[in-house]
Write a structure and sequence with these properties.
The chain is elongated, with a radius of gyration of 25 Å. The chain has a six-stranded mixed β-sheet with strand order 4-3-5-13-6-14, with helices on both faces. Helices cover 38% and strands 23% of the residues. By secondary structure, it is an alpha/beta fold. It starts with a helix and ends with a strand. The longest helix is centred in the N-terminal third of the chain and has 28 residues.
Length: 300
Amino acid sequence: MDLKRLRYFCKVVEQGSVSRAARVLNMAQPPLSKRIRELEEELKVPLFIRDGNSMTLTKAGESFYRRACQILRQVEIAARETSIIANHEGRILRVGLTHLYQNYFTPLLLEFYQRNPEVKISVSVTDSSSLESLLNDGIIDIALIQKPSNNEGYEYISFDPIKLVAVVNRNLLPGVIQTPFPWLQLADFPLVLLHRARDVGIYERLLDHFRSSGASPNVIMSITQPGIILDWLENGLEAATLLPASEVDPGRLRNCCVLDIFPAPQVFYPALVKSPATPYDAELLDIIAEGYPGKQAKVS
């Protein structure tokens, strides 16, 4: 199958018409229309429903478009990797690292570098939902993130849940502090909770846990980065937050208390995630198999 026809087909889908796609591709409309017809003849199915100048994908066309995008992304990745090898640039590992588990996954990346100093490591740090998009677009090789709630289209190595802790500005805790701190009493504090840039995630799960216990939490803010939340609490914001224990160092907090919670819901699920088309990195698998960060990694 001609890759050029695939690119032409995807551009027509994205532009909504042959005429607009032809302008973007800087080519005449008739030859572009001919290439699309040739593709349909090769597949022996119509890809578009044509109504005047309007073109709508058939169901077969929708499926083929998704596959065509995947094929073109893999071709681009292969071309880029071939160029790197040809130019003696060495190997590159492109990693997406979520703010949520920076401390948790840092030892893994540092150990990988110590064992493979010749490998160039490119790290993109943002929230889990954005990293899922980068993974889907082939911009990163692996994502160290919260395990996706929708696992379809991914392969992953999951780790045991990380304990949830509460971090509370000391001004909200006069008198003796009960430990472990009762879960439902947290609903009475002004709360600053983690929130993904898009889609359902930890924020919604925490609210569900409160509500299923009969509590109505007082959420005053939502922020994507644990570090910013901790910084604001330390600098006088009289509120509380709920974070993975791996990201909280009590020794660095002077104006906040770190509390164990009972009963603590499990919402923090770290994972190494990749697309099925990308092979697992053997060196990373070795480190995990040797026990990082414990003996709890599971491949799915």
